[in-house]
Amino acid sequence: MKADLHVHTLFSKDGRTTLEELVEYAVMNGIGCVAVTDHNSFDAYEQVKDNGRVIIIPAEEVSSKEGHIVALGIDRLIPRGLPIQETIDLIHEAGGYAFAAHPYRWWSGLGEKNTLAYPFDGIEARNGRSVPSANRKSEALARKVGKPITAGSDAHTPTHIGEGYMEIPDGLETWQEVVEAVMAGKATAHSQSRHMKGTLKYGFKSIGEWMLRGFKKMRGRNRRIHILAIFRIRNVFNWKFGSHNPFF
């Protein structure tokens, strides 16, 4: 069975997938289990858990102070904006497991140092919205630490559901059994990767939001991330087109 362990719905501010579409596209794409990992929201689970067609894992993508953490198998909302260790502790108190989400993503990943420094239960080794190099590094880091891994599409629209998944044993019937299989290492990670077009699109979107908010209003980590986005887009543009335009 295929389990997409990172999917967003309309309950994420940047999500576009209705709960009906979540189920329909999962079935259409051969996905038997989905972890609904909305950004800092736990509202979707109760509404979709009894759909009768796809196993739903209660989950959340939590925005900690230093980056995103996927909480699998939780029974309550985990608040955003807390330090990494406090976020992990709250996930454990909620009966869940804390996974370092897309650790090498430059605008929302925790980074290698934080991923190694804190007691995560596992690492997201493959993510459908990460660039190929980030996925390769995440897989290598997961092998290095020897912890459980996850994979998911990180779909924010229905058509992308299933672009990342874990291949787990057939015959599992509950989300608890799926999570147990993942934690026992009885699953393999698979995903597509985001290439240049998607990276450019997201980068320009981020810069546009920065400009609309006013440059002087950006502070600390968010400001550094958006400045880095400009240089990343410039480098990709120059690599593809050989441009020496000073804007890029």
Keywords:
2 domains; alpha/beta; single chain; TIM Barrel; 8 helices; disordered C terminus; nine-stranded mixed beta sheet; 248 residues
Account of the 3D structure:
With 248 residues, the protein is of the alpha/beta class. It has 2 domains: 190 residues, TIM Barrel (Alpha-Beta Barrel); 46 residues, no CATH class. Helix content is 39%, strand content 19%. The chain is built from 8 helices and 9 strands. A 9-stranded mixed beta sheet has the order 7-6-5-4-3-2-1-8-9, sandwiched between helices. Strand 6, helix 5 and strand 7 form a beta-alpha-beta unit. Helix 7 packs across helix 8. The N and C termini lie far apart (45 Å).
N-to-C SSE string, H for helix and E for strand:
EHEHEEHEHEHEEHEHH
Sequence stretches where pLDDT stays below 50 over 5 or more residues: 215-223, 233-248
According to CATH, the homologous superfamily of the largest domain is: Metal-dependent hydrolases
Q: What is the second-level CATH architecture of the largest domain? A: Alpha-Beta Barrel
- Tell me the strand order in the biggest sheet: 7-6-5-4-3-2-1-8-9
Number of strands: 9
Q: Can you count the helices?
A: 8
What characteristic shape results from the CA principal axes? Answer: globular
Mean pLDDT: 86
- Please indicate the percent range of residues in DSSP E strands (runs of 2 or more): 15-25%
Taken together, the total number of domains comes to: 2
Instruction: Profile the largest sheet.
Output: 9 strands, mixed
| Rg, Cα atoms, Å | 18 Å
Q: What structural category arises from helix and sheet content?
A: alpha/beta
